[in-house]
Amino acid sequence: MTWRDDYASRLASAEEAVSIVKSGDRVVIPLTEQPMTLVAALIARSPDLSDVTISISAPGFDVGALLDAGFHVEVENFIGPFARAYENEGIAPYLPLGFSLTFKTNDERPDNAKPIDTVLVTTAPPDENGMVGFGPHSWFKRSYARRAHKVIAEVNPSMIRTFGDCFLPVSSFDKMVKIEPPEATRETLIEMVSGLEDEKRIALEQIIQQVNPNRLAPMASRFSVLDVQRLKTVLGLDDPPPAAVAIAENVKKLIKHGSTIQIGVGTPATYLPKLGVFDDKLDLGLHSELTVPGIAQLVDSGVINGSRKTIHKNKAVAVAWSGSDDRDLAVIDGNPTFELYEPDYLLDPWLIAQNHQQVGLNNALSVDLVGQINSESVFGGQMYNGIGGQPETHMGALYSRGGRAITLLYSTAADGAISRIVARFAEGEIVTIPRFWADTIVTEYGIAELAGRNHRERAEALIAIAHPDFRAELRADATKWIPE
User: Fold this and answer.
1) For the chain, which residues score pLDDT lower than 50?
2) What are the distances in angstroms from CA 167 to CA 173, 180, 290, 425?
3) Domain residue spans in the chain?
4) Residue 114 contacts by C-beta under 8 Å, 6 or more apart in sequence?
5) How many CB atoms are closer than 10 A to CB 26?
6) How far is CA 116 from CA 112, 122, 167, in A?
7) What is the dihedral of CA 305, 307, 309, 313, to 10 degrees?
8) Buried b (16+ CB within 10 A) or exposed e, 36-51
9) Rounded to an integer, what is the distance from CA 357 to the centroid of its chain?
10) What CATH number labels 243-481?
11) What residues pair up with 152 in beta bridges, in sequence order?
12) What are the strands, taking DSSP E only, across 53-144?
């Protein structure tokens, strides 16, 4: 039997494919590009199933549809806007796993591990050798597929061609469902937003005119609930605010020639390439969880060439090319300079630390005066997102010889009403990076070097980069909390 015969034997309708899910199964839907045809078919089958748990990472749709169908839901790694309310209500609990430790229990402590009964993934069609890739947003789809008892793939022919250790043979899949994504046009997308209130409709129409419509098509059904500002940021369409410009100028001082960089998702880090932080640097490398708009273009121009990297030399490596804009994806498509690897390998802090001068650039929601960093929760512990790859990339950079772990945050939130640098965290606030791993904090008001400093010195350094409106209050609190 050739691989083509094998592939043909595994093709099925979505309904046939999800029929292999059984009552009592734990079904995993890894991030990102979630297989919505399979999700819809599974929801339709829910009356025939009982006690099924759906473990889903960074949901791209309202998980209330799964809960309403009678499934148990847990959210892994990153929450996002479509699961946030359910987690905070306690009906879709969060599973806090670092990427590099996701499979530790499965591989080393199977008696204590949660089962991976069925995994639903999106893939590209098989290549000429019968190998199946997972598209530009690979993440840990391959990692789960290698360990699952049953694997169902939604095969999307529109995925770009990628390189690296990110393929499995056709024989690894139990069922494969070919989909034909409808060819989107700007006209059809504009029609879909025509009924929205004017402010949102106009903003979405502007986005539609600037972006490849096929990229927007998968989210078109969610236009009414999408955060337009966040969408513009993700797509690289918005203008950086003045605070981001000032932060970029501060970061620029910290990046040395020959550094290998990692940039985390979200603001203000996403603006760094657009603001020219790396343009005058020589021989940068990329070893990252994901990317942000403009990074692939820096590779294309030679600013990022990997020539001084310690590992994966001359290659730009990540676990996903999520965060790329249309120009980035055009550079990455079919380009062997860009390689994808599984996160339990690439985001192992000890691997990251092998890079000379590894620089981690991640965002925070708040920092307290002893240097504890919160990137996950608001208002006393309400979950907002999750850890993502931040702890691992932060630690890898910190332990790298010549490396630096940089945390970025705006000095205030809520239009200036709240300081993000706080005397102490509210009860229940979640610490993403403990104070003994804090390194360098950057706001629009400057740089605070925390490594090697005691609590009092840290408080002074952080107050100096807080918003001026809050410095006196913070200093008063610091006097009570950190005695003279």
Assistant:
1) none
2) 12, 21, 18, 44
3) 3-178, 186-234, 243-481
4) 26, 55, 105, 106
5) 19
6) 12, 17, 19
7) 90
8) bbbbebbbebbeebee
9) 23
10) 3.40.1080.20
11) 120, 175
12) 53-57, 72-76, 94-95, 118-123, 131-133
Question: Which H or E run contains 366?
Answer: strand 366-368
Q: Which residues contact 412 (CB under 8 A, 6 or more apart)?
A: 418, 419, 420, 467, 469, 470
- Give the H/E segment covering residue 373: strand 373-374
Is the separation of the CB atoms in 44 and 136 below 8 Å? no
Q: Are 420 and 413 in contact (CB under 8 A)?
A: yes
Asked whether this chain's domains 3-178 and 243-481 adopt the same fold, the reply is yes
**pLDDT given for residue 219 in this prediction:** 76
CATH annotation of 3-178: 3.40.1080.10
pLDDT tens readout for residues 90-113? 999 998 888 899 999 999 999 999
Q: What per-residue confidence (pLDDT) applies to 34?
A: 85
pLDDT of residue 75: 92
Both tokens assigned to 143: 């990692």
Choose among 437, 447, 436, 462: nearest CA to 481. Answer: 462
Question: Does the reported pTM lie above 0.85?
Answer: yes
And the tokens for 293? Answer: 């708009």
Residue 28 pairs in a beta bridge with 55, 119
CA-based nearest residue to 327, from 318, 336, 335, 315: 335
Token pair 């804090």 is at which residue?
Answer: 438
Nearest one of 136, 51, 79 to 378, comparing CA atoms = 79
Instruction: Give me the pLDDT at residue 380, please.
Output: 80
Structure tokens at 259: 């550094």
Token pair for 451: 């490594």
Euclidean distance between the first and the last CA atom of the chain, given in angstroms as a whole number: 79
Residue 483 is predicted with a pLDDT of 64
Q: How many CA atoms lie within 13 A of 252 on its CB side?
A: 18
Q: Residue 56 has what DSSP assignment?
A: E
- Paired sense of beta strands 358-363 and 366-368, if any: unpaired
308 neighbors 258 (Cβ within 8 angstroms): yes
**Which amino acid is present at 231?**
L
pLDDT at 79: 83
Tens-digit pLDDT profile for residues 198-213: 899 999 999 999 988 8
Determine the Cα–Cα distance for residues 363 and 416; give it in Å rounded to an integer.
18
Sign for the pseudo-dihedral over CA of 200, 417, 383, 431 = positive
CB 363 within 8 A of CB 371: no
pLDDT score for 97: 82
**Residue tagged 């793939």 (tokens):** 153
Helix (H, G, I), strand (E, B) or coil at 318: strand
Q: Report the amino acid identity of residue 85.
A: A
